[in-house]
Structures are given as structure tokens and as C-alpha cells.
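As a warm-up, study this chain.
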Amino acid sequence: MTILVTGATGNVGRLAVDELVARGVSVRALTVDPQRAALPDGVEVVVGSLAKPSTLPPALDGVEAVYLAPYQRTVGRFCELAGEAGIRRVVALSGSSVGDTHPGSSGHGFAAVEKAVEAAGFDWTFLRPGAFMMNSLGWAQSVRKHGEVRSAYPGAAQAPIDLSDIAAVAAHVLTTDGHVGKTHVLSGPESISLERMAAAIGEALGKPVSFVELTPEQQMAEWTGVGYPADIASWLLGIFEQAAARPETPTGVVEDLLGRSGVAYAEWASANVAAFS
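Now compare it with the structure written out below.
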């Protein structure tokens, strides 16, 4: 069986390639920049992108399943071409924000991808991870320069997930039975507050990292000041507010599917200590 990984240079797609190769699966990788992707030996490379549907037919020819990166703008055309190529199995990366009605929510785009894939009649599985641990890299400059994390809602508790766990789940559902027509909501193994995340980064660095609490207004000003669109900044602030009032609970899906614990935040911080140094 050959599996096509779209967005093979992306954060999750690149890791999914490694996970599939480790499982002995024949992998075809769709990427705009094979050199940057540094793909493993034996992976078939097709230069192209979901953003350019004209590049998709050679990538789709002869594969049995597709890992689909979330790209709303051309998902309809992808579905048409995949159907013409005889593809039956599609595992699509989505997000836990599906159903969120805020104008700035990422859920609108993810929902559009899911709707198109389901309507096309594929044997689909949707992966809906929540917050990524790597989002904390947005604090890296402040930690490096000032030894501090600045944020509103220090008690906001999320269950962030490491990208490697998402990729491992993607490879698992692509290569095992029993996942067709299922939506897997993915999280990390623990609920952890923003303030505790900052402390974990400090522990990984071996020196204190202070938490500077911002008001919601200050947080909005900082985000929009570095280029966040106001609607997205408002949406993110609302997520923190909700997580402070109702801490997120781990879903346990990663553990159930993979038979092992997901990566803990402290592990992620230790693995990424160079970014904060």
C-alpha cells in the first residue's frame, strides 16, 4: 500500500512521513520544497501543493490512501481529483475548534475541509487536535530576552498536544482498521495552566522564568501590535478566558489509540530548550 502525505514539509505532515516509514509503509510525499523537507531515503517525492491542484494528479495516481493537510481554499478540487483517481481512504487533519462560531475561529476552515471530504464519499477519518505545545514558542523571545512569559489568564488550563503525537495517530489510523467514519479529538496527557507552562520552561532551562500577568486589554494590544488580526486575537483571548473558567480535560484518545502515554509538557519543554535559550 502506498500512502500520499500532503503538506509533507509541514509541521505534522513531515512527522507523519517518518511515522509511516517506521511502520514499513510505502510513502509518497507531496511538497513544494523537497530539499528543505529532508525526506527519508525511499520516500517517493512529488513536487507540488494542495494550493496548486494542477500538481495533484501525478501525486494521486496509484495511491490507496491520503493524509490530507487542512487547506480550505482548494479542498473541493482535491476531492474531485482524488475521486477521479479512485482514492477511497482519506485521513484529514482538522481541529477541535470545529463548531466554534467566533468570527476569528480556525474552526470555520476545518469544518469546510471536513464537510467537503465527507460529502465526496471517501472512507474518512478526522483528527481534531486542540492546542499545540509548540504554540508556546511564541514566548521564546520574551524568555530569551527578559526571562519572562507575558500573558493574560495565568490560570487558563489547556491540554496541549505535541506534534509528534498527532503524527503518530495519523500513521496509526492510516495503517490499521476500525477508524472509518470516526472523529478523533486529540489532546496531550495533562491539563496544565499557562503559568505552570512557564514554570516548566524555567525548569528545563535550569533558571526561573517569571510570569507577568497581563489584563485582557493589554494582551489584545500586544497581539495586535505584532500583527495578529483583531478577530483572531479576540478569539484566542476568549479561549484563554474559557480555559481559566473551565479547565480543559485530556481526552485520552492518544493513549487509547497508541497504547502509550502522550508527550508531557515538561518533556516538550526539555526537548525544545534551545529555542528558549
